Here is the input.
Amino acid sequence: MEDYIKQDRADGSRGWTEHKPRTCFTVYGKVRGQGRPRFTTRGSFVKVYKDKRDVAYEQEIAKAYREAGGTLHTGAVAVHITAFRALPQSRPKKVTHEPDTHQPDIDNICKIVLDGLNGIAYLDDSQVVYMTARKQDRKRRPEEFITVLVTDD
Here is the structure.
């Protein structure tokens, strides 16, 4: 019975609904997208590695998830990502908001979040069966951040 919670239904009646574990957390700082892989050669061998800034951002995401009390999910997972970015100072003062059609691309934001949660929120990102992502309009904000919600599906 601990997997169910008492909840009002849409038709007005009350009943037991399955409780899905969920963790919502926020990562403050410049919103980053997954960068291109880097290559180096050692003799005739090629080594592929991630940029150190990408690795640091993934570690920030993992830290925020752990601090929010997130647990390891073993089944199907749903992830919801929202990015909030500030208008640049160079924009005229009369512009209060505008659609965020600038870099980083939303798919690269999703990639870095999923990679950051890999092994922390779920065993492998193949467990993610449902995902939503949104870049909110750029507004005059003091800080940029992303919010992430991870739930069982």
